[in-house]
User: Fold this.
Amino acid sequence: MRWLVTGAGGMLGRDMTDVLDRRGERVAGLDRGALDITRYDAVADAIAAHRPDVVVNCAACTAVDDAETDEDRALRVNGDGPRHLARACAAAGARLVHVSTDYVFPGDATTPYPEDHPPAPRTAYGRTKLAGERAVLEELPDTGVIVRTAWLYGVHGRSFVRTMMDLEARSATVDVVDDQRGQPTWSADVAARVADLGPLVGRGASGVLHATSSGETTWYDLAREVFHGLGADPDRIHPVGSAACPRPAPRPAYSVLAHGRWRELGLPPLRDWRAALHEALPHIRKESLRETP
Assistant:
């Protein structure tokens, strides 16, 4: 199979190209500088040049707070970009896996959101990502898949886990919110699952899937687990409410996603978040030390 990964310079995009390379797949990774997905002509040219069987769209405007004041810009990337990709894929006979987010839900549930739960975003970012989902499903009803993920961290780029690792080295104590629940998810696990999924798109797989780690926790307990994994004292983490950390875009109080559709495809849900985190920490620490001057 031939693969094309957009947003290949980002956390998930880099893991996606790495996973496909290790599996011996033919993959072209295009970062933001190589492909502007807000331009249809650029998208069509890239797909014509690389002739992919599967496109994985990891390109996104993920600045959640900035989207509140510049929703039009976020919409061009998160809404128009996926539509351009979907239309170009339809014209070329390619399949598309589009990465989306838990922010399409209101975050007020008390049990995990199933894949078919009605979206109701409460932020500009969530609205723009929902626009992208709908565009892909409209343009590619049989050969397009939405993969929603959440609370991503990885070896490359910034994340909550990386921030906690940095704070452990320089702060005596750290305040972390304890009233938001979700599923910390290693981007490498998501990339591996998307690689499994690609051959199934249009051959039994379509619509929406959730790719988050199993289990659930709070940011506070995640921070404690990071400290524990580093051999540091978890009691240096102090719990606070969300009101102590106001942000322009409200964070969902509950971002736990259900995984029922994987079983329909004969694939298990992603592993427990703790197991993934403890495998990931040494790799993240190694990269952090490599980047330190």
About this structure: The first strand starts at residue 2 and ends at 6.
